[in-house]
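FORM 7B - TANDEM STRUCTURE REPORT

SECTION 1: FIRST PROTEIN
SEQUENCE AND TOKENS:
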Amino acid sequence: MGEAGPAINEYSAAGLRLRVIDLAPDLAPYTLGCYRTEVEPGTLVEDWLPPEQANLRCGRAEVYEAAIGDDPLVQVPSAVLSGATNRGTRLRIGNGKFWGIGLTPAGWARLIACPASDMANSFRDIHHVEGLEPIADLLDSLCEDGDDMEACAQRINSCLRSQLGRRPRDESAIHAVHLSLLSEETTSVAPLAVMTGMNPRTFERFCKRRFGFSARALLKKQRFLRSLGKYMLDPSMKWTNALDTHYWDQAHFIRDFKATMGMTPGEYAQGPHPIVKAAVAVTSARAGVPHQALQGPGQVIEDETGV
């Protein structure tokens, strides 16, 4: 019996179309689904994206430029490996079609050979990353022939399954920390280290290798994104009503916002944010939880070999 067709959620407005597609359930622990973005001819879309998880991305367009944090805008290669970020990303796209595949920390551990910290706050032409040739070929094929959503999802499923390496010994710890970081009840680093049975220094090395950043930076990132997510879900609310409970006060949030996005919350609110708005709309339709940089991993499904 073949796979059921993937679930697809869609948002369209002002020349921008975003579709999010679920991948196969057995890949849920390792991927955050995939998305297809289309920008009509004559339309130029610009936005500041909040911090996010690692991605595989590809696209062909008249305009395809990006900059992370204070970096200058650069032309994005047609197929890239993007590391996890804890700073905002400026994105300009026009007249093109794009694919993206989100990776969980466990997905990075099984698909990408290098530590997550080596690619944090950066992106690289995937053709120049050793060992990812089959995934590079997949992204190239999506650029060339990516209009049939269900057929593309099946190709992605097949490729990623074939490229999953053996489970690392710390995979259960990766999933446990991943889920704990999503919880608003997680307020400090120490309980996370205790949960994994690691001493503080070992736990810091673990977080940088598997998540890209220190444990403290990961908590800060999630605190920021919970607040931004609440606001983007309802921009009519005041920022003070969107603040995460982990912020001491409004000044604390403003400092975090400027450090993360390079602007104040008020300055950010003045922009139209077409891409973020589309992502929030689609994510809310799928799960009711907007803009979690670390979406929860799906259930780990073992095969008979335990791989």
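SECTION 2: SECOND PROTEIN
SEQUENCE AND TOKENS:
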Amino acid sequence: MHKAVLSSDRVMLLLSLVPYLAEHGPTTVTELAAAFDVSPSLLRKLVTILGTAGVPGETLTYQDDDLFDINWDAFEHDDLVSLTKVVGVDDAPRFAPAETAALIAGLHALTGVLPGESAELARATAEKLGAALGDPERTAALTVTADREDARLPVAVSAIEEQRVLAFEYRDAAGHHTSRKVDPLELSQHGGSWYLRAWCHDRHAARTFRLGHMSELQLLEAVETTQGEDPHPPRDAVSHEDRHSFTLTASLPAQLLPSIQGFDPEVIQELPAQRVLVAVEAWHERAAIQLVQVAPGQIIVESPATACAAVRDWTARALAAYDA
């Protein structure tokens, strides 16, 4: 039993016939009907319409050169559909190589957070795009290899989808280890790393955790609510600095770079006296203080102004406590 085909579906089917035939070449009516899951009789009716379909030319009227055509003898005697003239299809807009590469990168980024069937579809689509990205012989100009999936990512996704408390061990940028329990809110990706936004039971506040610094993830009980209300503050109540990352720059001796690897620094400039300028993605100004604490007096926060102010305030408080 073939599926029922409405009038609107017949238009879409007719539009699909031309690229299919252009790719597969002469095809029998029976094979076409099986490919599109319609009856052979309906397929034959649609094929006869091809001779009156096309793209209006410069005169905006349908002349002979503006219409599709098929080998009518092969169609009538052998039930074979063979295009002899194609119009308009080759002029269809196509992705530029850079656009295709961007699509592949986006699909790779999504694969880790998609459920099984959708993730497989994303992988297959990325592979097809990679195969099409190249010369006319379809030699791949880009090797499509999925990164090894982080086993922590699907656990975090499940915690959000199932609204369950998530427990884990966490290592902060300074190397300190703590045990946390959180109510997960959302996942985001920035600078190639995944971040979990969550309500921390231990800090009684919203916090952002870097997935790469989390370990021993465990799904616990369902997130508790009181009389159907959300126990967390509305998202707008969270400070701007707590919700958005910013780039922090600092100068330091090049030899100290291994000591701040937990901050994932990016060297952006070499300075005199064997010093370097680095950029660090941070979620709050306290990160500037933690960075300076690695080597006080040797690491200097250069920007932004709010981070510099946070370091100055911390220094002033430390000196005041010392004088007391």
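SECTION 3: OBSERVATIONS ON SECOND PROTEIN
Residues 56-62, 135-147, 226-230, 234-243 have pLDDT under 50 and may be disordered.
Residues 305-323 form the longest helix (19 residues).

SECTION 4: SIGNATURE
Preparer initials: ____
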